[in-house]
Amino acid sequence: MHKQTSSAMPWFVVGDIDGFFGLALDNLVQLLIIVSLCRAVLGFPDELVYGRILPGAAVSLLVGNLYYAWQAKKLAEREGRADVCALPYGINTISLFAFIFLVMLPAKLVAQAQGVADPARVAWQVGLLACFSGAVIEIAGAFVAERLRIATPRAALLSTLAGIALGFISLGYLFRAYAHPIVGLSTLAVILLTYFGRVKFKGGIPGGLVAVSLGTLLSWLTGIAPVGADPVSTGWHWPLPVLGELFDSLRADHLLMYLSVILPMGLFNLVGSLQNIESAEAAGDRYSTRNSLLANGIGSLAACAFGSCFPTTIYIGHPGWKALGARAGYSVLNGVFMSFICLSGTLSYIVWAVPVDAGLAIVLWIGIVIAAQAFQATPKEHAPAVVIGLLPGIAAWGAFMTKNGLHAAGMGDLDGPPFSTALLDQFAKADVWMDGAFALEQGAIFTATLLSAATVAVIERRFVQASLWCWVAAILSALGLMHSYRFAASDTVLSLTPAWPWVIGYACMGLVFLSARWVAAEE
What pTM value is reported for the model? Predict the structure, then answer.
């Protein structure tokens, strides 16, 4: 193919403006969520959020966005085309919620129960460990990602993500939308029109920008905004390495305690990015799989090295950005803009003026799309496996909500009664089997993947493979990575001891599947 000069595709075109607004808005919502959850759920001080976490996020966003823009430019030069679109990139939404609610919050509660002087710092360090571990998985997996994708049924991968998305993203924010219905439902209507109804606003204004602008206006009119006291400038914070804190976090007990979340999330991020690279190829832009995945892993590594607990990912939607006319420049603009608001303290003013409620419809949409994709991108006969894969994630969210309700009633506080096995008896009297819910909560991601994969094998009448998936679950339960929990003063946490009842249960389940070839009647 004839190789043209770099003038074949300029760094910036008009379409990059539209692409920038869409991608920057998506990233901005992630940052608003990070600030909101880190302060409200984890109790992190502003010095930690604005002085460490956001500068780390800025580095990761800048590194990845600049690389993918350069990658697009090089592809355009190599193929002599002017229509190459950079891979969209930003903070991983699913990992954000999973790390906060399934890793960092439990770590903080355990530290509080142990009387640690600064439990917030412990939670932050464990978050750094989770992000670092995810980055290592992404980098190592860049060389084997295709094999992982082939080995695991798509229904198992997508339904597991969908379960987390439905519980921790969609349902949680649906509650908030209905708590503030004027803002929540109005912005949801805009998002439904834009992304599901394919309605384009006059003047080419991005639907996400319309939703956030309308949400912000209604928030001010209804008293939801401004958020908190008048903002005080946090000043400019240069990103500084936190290698000492990261090194302190590299403890075997922390890694084992949360491995059942960290490992699956790293694998799902890896496979999800792979699928998005495939989506870009289907749209005409064929990028190196290995280099693209390595860059994503390096972005996550940069995040934790400079203080952010939140890994990055290649976003879904490349064909959409390309259809808007975005090329390489939108990625550059996004990286520079997001870095500026993270480092300059500008985000503190945005958080004050733009409540999360203004952008939660976009987050709801993300959860809905992830759940819908689990059905749309799998064979229709695998739908039962998708449903089974949804249940553990929703159960984990239900257990989380139950414990939050107990906290709201004063249980688990310093002056209140601690969590104990007596809770199980009280719930059982109401025919609520929380023992099962607490067991499902531990290793829910593993459970969802394995159950769904076994169900796919049964549907396809591959009974030996179905039994193997069950025996993998038995092994993980024996290692204490699934279903093994103990009561802390204010939480239930992974105990890392063999969960024998579930070991036996999965072993029996595998034997039942294995026996099907001999006991099943001929059709």
Answer: 0.77
